[in-house]
Amino acid sequence: MKNIDSITHVSGTSVYLDDVPVINGTLYGAAFGSPCAHGVISELILDDALQLPEVVRIFTAADIPGHNEIGGIIKDEPLLADTHVHFCGMPIAFVVARSREAARAAVKKIRVKITSLPVITDPREAQAKGELIVPPRTFRLGNTDSAWEQCAYVITGNADINGQEHLYIETQGAYAIPQENNSLRIYSSTQGPTAVQRAVSGIIGQPMHRFEVIVTRLGGGFGGKEDQANTWAALCALAAWRLNKPVKYALHRMEDMAMTGKRHPYAADFKIGLDKDLKILAYEASFFQNAGASADLSPAVLARTLFHCTNSYYIPHVTATGWSCRTNLPPNTAFRGFGGPQGMFVIEAAIAKAAHVLQVDAALIQRRNLIRSGQPFPYGQIAESEAPLCWEKLEERFDITEQQRKVKQFNENNSLFKKGIALMPVCFGISFTNTLMNNARSLVHVYSDGSVGISTGAVEMGQGVNTKILQVAAQVFSIPADKVRLHHTSTNTIANTSPSAASATADLNGKATLIACTAIVERLKQLAAVTFAVTPADITLVNGHVLVNGLPSAWDWYQLVTTAFAKRICLSEHGHYATPQIHYDAVNEKGHPFAYHVYGTAMLEATVDCIRGTYTIDAVKVVHDFGNSMNTDIDRGQIEGGIVQGIGWMTMEEVLYDRDGKLRSNALSTYKVPDIYAAPATIAIEALQTDRDNLAVFRSKAVGEPPLMYGIGAWFALQNAVRAFHPNADIPFVTPMTPEKVLMALYSTTNPETNHPHAETVSHLGIDQ
Amino acid sequence: MKFILNNNNIATSLSPGMPLLDFIRYQQHLMGTKTGCNEGDCGACTVLTGELKQDVLVYRTMTSCLMPLGNAHGKHIVTIEGINMLPALNPVQQAMVDNCATQCGFCTPGLVMSLAGYCLDRTPASTEGAIAAIDGNICRCTGYKSIEKAAAQVATLLTDKNEQEPALFAVERQMLPNYFSGIKDRLKCLIMTLNGELNPPAESKPRFVAGGTDLYVQQPEAIQEHPIRFLLGQELLKGITQEEGRCILGASVTVSDLLESAIMRKHFPALDNYLQLVSSTPIRNMATIAGNFVNASPIGDMTIFFLALDTTLELSDGQSTRTLPLRELYTGYKKLRKRPEEYITRCWFELPGPDTGFHFEKVSKRQHLDIASVNSAISITMAGNLIGNVRIAAGGVGPVPMLLTETAAFLKGQAPGTAMIKQACAVAQLEITPISDARGTAEYKRLLLQQLIKAHFITLFPSLQVELLL
User: Fold this and answer.
1) How many CB atoms sit inside 10 A of residue A727's CB?
2) Most CB within 10 Å of its CB: which of A74, A256, A373, A559?
3) Window 124-183 of A, Cβ < 8 Å to B
């Protein structure tokens, strides 16, 4: 089944935030962000801006009636800077004017005097100075201290992983409209309507029930609108509340890029120990997360880095520590994979380095150490592993050995171009790691004409969650899809929602819908059973018909519903689902945090132009653990999109801040995401169809985040291609692998055994001086 | 200003400097055209612009975020609403649906418009062509594979198009609404009624705007406040002609015009390869060569291209004209030997003869639709086995687009060989002064220029022993 929004999308009739028809008298907002990354505000000069004819008012922290605080996990983030600024772009004032143009013009007229304080952009520096968001966390399995002596080989190294701009094509925004009796309706481009509602409630200092947050759909989210949509909604709500006028703010791309956080850059140290059979015995890793200026979701992101620090491998002795480091960058936030990809990059780097030192193929080490069912992850959960099966099926279906032989042959015959191949296994846990968030609700109405309307807490952002929820209802009611309609997401219909995130939205909201629809069906069956003098178990609904003991009856769906309505049977249900079985003890760092894991393995092939340093990622071939996909069209789309986004992160997407904390890659002209020619010529996806029971909706495993991490293989395929040209090329584990890094590596002359001081390897810091 | 927007005649006295996108969305409330980047880099705001050129109706895609309303004057502007035939989907839309080529949907109208534009293209249809038509559309969700399939499906629908007027073919095949068949006549009538609406006030000191692709990125607000003289539509500034061995180009020639010019294609057989590295289809449809010159970017692709050809410019202040070699236009970073009231009217260069080899190289972070880290063009005229006249232009290695004169002087009179090329690379290092910026470190740009010089020679002299250059 195609995405149910397809037709409105292709005809341009889908409504996004900036498309909501504006009400007469609507005012337009624009935020003034700090020009300085760290300092104390001595004077804010608004006079020039206020004198512009269309400017209505400029709001500052002093105008906030409630608490000037929007932090989610930790209360450490003011909506508007009051005395201190902590990052470039931190909102200081909010202009409201009669036109967009006037609001933006006024922002340019605001002046602020700031006494500068030292700027930290490097997480290692922040950690050394004790600038931590939360205390460090350590995951332990076995005992690494005593394990090293059992290792035949011990290899150490470090990695620098850059961030990633979400670059949802629809920028952030909100539109707050006053309603009667001191309440607001807020349209928000958010993945977390409840988070917006909570933030607005705190800022205005009024209970949540006064604020309705509505989301129709997003033009992309990828995690960037999980918590960071709160700011714009809170600013619009503040102004709308104070002025009693509708206020709208759809960010300009450059505002969005400068003011919002991104995927976290990480620095990391690793130490890996193997026995002579290439079994990994011990692994130690230290992760320095660049959290930015406030917590946002960083502690949770850091936790997932630790959860995924051993990727798809079983390692008996593990010590992994994570520091969430406070720097003067915009608060970094959720991004597809949520810290997992960074953890995985580091273990893959450790394996790659070991392979290079030992002069063996990294795939040999990878394969030998894949986790098997019954083995524990460092956090105690016992694997029900599909990792070896995925690898074997990849070998069988795409012939890894033959592919490696072809690449070798190509390299022997070509001097200007070299190819590289890399394998990338992925294991990703599905559930919010914060157990309490794993719940959802669905409100299902069967109308008296037999049509069905559904509201859930899920936010549609292209991932097809509404299509899947519709499929659940159509299947349970056994009616055609066109009888079911998904309503927009609203905090009035569904309360206390978790954000649409963690790949779990279809599972959680799908299950809640399943529960609600099933409850209605039970009541309908009861009615039919009484009517036909059988038991409810004898009644089935098939293709819109009511079957009694498997035989057609005189009733169809319409008859069933109208009869139920006439008999005053409730045709609505509010279903609630909370993921069973999961638990976690954050003190001992042990538990069973995930409903299940998704597995897969990819083979990536790259070609490097050894004259120019340019490259292509030619092919990505994947065996992916779908469970039992309920919508292969949507799931394949998620995989292809995830892969290309992951490749972008690993290759061309370079977030650049200068040493003053100012974003240099601040527009689409300076921050490049894959275009159609950057996508691999081949993406082949083979399903690992498994029948094992799992907690996914209809056993169709979550698919949003895991495929992104296949893209990590692009970095290693490029590394291998460069090594085919220059076997001792100096290739520090720094992402992304831009054409610049490739060319510099191709013609590198330094001794690769040199351990680079950190300052020489960082890529996410300023070079634009 | 007067133009046709979809099926409606528009007459407006709004500021001609207003971006067309804002007019479409916030004045006309046509919300299908999306705002993505305001830089012409994502394609979410793509529209079609239909124009009568010597009585031929030509449709091109353009990014409406960078297009001043003034450049719509006298044309047919088509948004997604203008190609809808709801409740039916047109075949482009159907192809997108069939291939699951839409996820969040925000980039989708732009993609549909680019493919609709391809349906109105006059070149023979191919999958590669259909994909090239969407090279300016960024999608962050799908990973493009499904979009490629949709493009291929669109291409198959066009295989049997013949010499027929594309708009009529599209209407006949129910690809576009019926009103398209009347547009040509309506445009003819419209043009008859135009009478200097776009002229800036007599006493004003107008700013010049051609395609707008750089100005609307750099100073979108400032430009709207000024009186503007629009250059793109001026007949006198158009056209590519040959006079004996000389090629003469109007200042408003766009990159797409270059690509379609028989003269250029004949003398630069690899032109497609060069120009596909220059921005994207909608930007190439708007951006003019003179605009690229006066923007004075140190890495302007067309500037580098024409520097190597030793192009001469003709400038006018409205009263008198003068000529100036392109190589003398720049006096420093973004500083021009040009008075504010002057604009370029045309330029010319000697077409390369049989003894001259030309080549263009560009490397950027993303291979397509990106600004160069370093670009370079070379023109070498051989005198027997020896290098005669040679020019190497290089961008991204100094404050202005450079001609590597020392390197050229070193090369002159030598026989092409690997040792000599390496020495030339060393000479080049002495005359460049790259800086570190978002496009790469200075160290990288130095190495890259050297590599591009090697690439020039490897391309132009295939018998060279390549291994010795690595």
Assistant:
1) 10
2) A256
3) 167-171
Q: What is the pLDDT of residues A189-203, one digit of tens each?
A: 999 999 999 999 999
Instruction: Please report the residues numbered 42 through 71 in chain B whose beta carbons come closer than 8 angstroms to any beta carbon of chain A.
Output: 42, 44
State which residue of chain A sits closest to B136, comparing Cα positions: A675
Give me the residue from A21, A642, A744 closest to B444, CB to CB. A744
Domain residue limits, chain A: 22-118+166-259, 266-432+588-761, 439-578
Q: Is A705 a catalytic residue?
A: yes
A705, A740, A753, A760: which one is catalytic? A705
Residues whose CB is less than 8 angstroms from the CB of residue A754 and which lie 6 or more positions away in sequence, other chains included? A730
Instruction: List the 433-452 stretch of B: residues with Cβ below 8 A of A.
Output: 436-441, 443-444, 447-448, 451-452
Q: Cβ of A640 and B146 within 8 Å?
A: yes
**Test the A interface: residue of B366, B370, B375, B446 with most A CBs within 10 Å:** B366
A726 touches chain B (CB under 8 A): no
Residue type, B195: N
A266-432+588-761: CATH number: 3.30.365.10
Supply the Cα-derived Rg of chain A in whole angstroms.
27
More reliable by pLDDT, A691 or A523: A523
Cβ count near B235 (within 10 Å): 9
The closest of A651, A644, A746, A650 to A418, measured between CA atoms, is A746
pTM of the model: 0.97
Label residue A181 exposed, middle or buried (CB < 10 Å: 0-12, 13-18, 19+). Answer: exposed
- Burial of B179: CB neighbours in 10 Å, binned 0-12, 13-18, 19+: middle
B225 at A interface, C-beta within 8 A: no
Residue A759 has pLDDT above 70, yes or no: no
Whether chain B has a CB inside 8 Å of the CB on A99: the answer is: no
**C-alpha span between B314 and B308 (Å, rounded):** 18
Tell me the chain B residues in contact with residue A645 when contact means C-beta distances shorter than 8 Å.
Answer: 140, 143
Q: Structurally, what CATH architecture does the domain formed by A22-118+166-259 represent?
A: 2-Layer Sandwich (3.30)
Q: Give, in degrees to the nearest 5, the angle at Cα B58 between B52 and B59.
A: 125
Note the pLDDT of residue A765.
38
Q: Would you tell me how many other CB atoms lie within 10 Å of the CB of residue B256?
A: 19
User: Considering only A359-368, A747-756, B11-20, B269-278, which range has the smallest mean pLDDT?
Assistant: A747-756
Q: Please state, in angstroms and rounded to a whole number, the distance separating the CA atoms of residues B372 and B363.
A: 6
pLDDT bin (cut points 50, 70, 90) of residue B199 is confident
Chain A residue with the nearest C-alpha to that of B214: A669
For residue range A375-410, list pLDDT tens digits in order: 999 999 999 999 999 999 999 999 999 999 999 999
Q: How far, in whole angstroms, is CA B342 from its chain's centroid?
A: 23
| Same fold yes or no, A22-118+166-259 and A266-432+588-761 | yes
Confidence band of B224 (pLDDT split at 50, 70, 90): confident
CA atoms within 13 A on the CB side of A183: 13
For the segment A588-596, the average pLDDT, to the nearest whole number, is 98
Q: Return the structure tokens found at A591.
A: 């538990």
C-alpha distance from B421 to closest chain A C-alpha (Å): 14
Residue A345 has pLDDT above 50, yes or no: yes
DSSP B381-445: EEETTEEEEEEEEEESSSSS-EE-HHHHHHHTTPPP-HHHHHHHHHHHHHH-----BTTB-HHHH
CA A388, A390, A395, A400 torsion-angle sign: negative
The CATH number of the domain covering residues in A439-578: 3.30.365.10
Of B96, B102, B365, which is closest to A652 when you measure between CB atoms? B365
List of domains in chain B: 1-198 (3.10.20.30), 235-469 (3.30.465.10)
